[in-house]
């Protein structure tokens, strides 16, 4: 999926934001599965510390990677879309990613997005 996003021969850039939702949805499913595994260990009164650290690490890497892909997609789309369409795509992609990052408490990604949005608005 990410290869399709980066493929130079991909003919319709307007479809890229739609394709980008697939890795985003997959990331959300993976993070929910980790959360479920952690909750199960807590309920069984088992040691969850190692699983928590693995979850935090993978969550940060996964969401930061998605954010970098989003930034790359937005950067390449700047030449291909008009101002209002570009702003709409920018808002749509970042709003979904902000929601996932907030839900999973990935504050580093939230901070990066907010800083970039502040730079973008200025």
Automatic annotation (TrEMBL):
Question: Where does it reside?
Answer: Nucleus
* Keyword terms of this UniProt record: Nucleus, Transport
Q: Under the cellular component aspect of Gene Ontology, which terms does the record hold?
A: nuclear pore outer ring
- MF GO annotations: structural constituent of nuclear pore
State whether keyword Iron applies. no
InterPro entries recorded: Nup133-like
Identify the main location. Answer: nucleus
Q: Which GO terms describe its biological process?
A: poly(A)+ mRNA export from nucleus; protein import into nucleus; transcription-dependent tethering of RNA polymerase II gene DNA at nuclear periphery
Name by which UniProt lists this protein:
Nuclear pore complex protein NUP133-like
Organism of this sequence: Punica granatum (Pomegranate)
Organism phylogeny: Eukaryota, Viridiplantae, Streptophyta, Embryophyta, Tracheophyta
């Amino acid at each position: 999926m990410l290869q399709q996003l980066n493929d130079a021969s991909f003919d319709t850039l307007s479809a890229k934001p739609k394709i980008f939702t697939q890795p985003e949805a997959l990331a959300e499913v993976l993070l929910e599965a980790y959360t479920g595994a952690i909750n199960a260990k807590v309920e069984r009164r088992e040691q969850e510390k190692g699983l928590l650290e693995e979850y935090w690490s993978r969550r940060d890497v996964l969401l930061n990677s998605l954010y970098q892909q989003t930034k790359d997609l937005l950067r390449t789309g700047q030449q291909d879309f008009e101002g209002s369409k570009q702003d709409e795509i920018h808002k749509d992609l970042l709003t979904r990613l902000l929601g996932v990052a907030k839900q999973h408490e990935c504050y580093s990604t939230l901070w990066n997005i907010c800083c970039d949005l502040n730079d973008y608005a200025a």
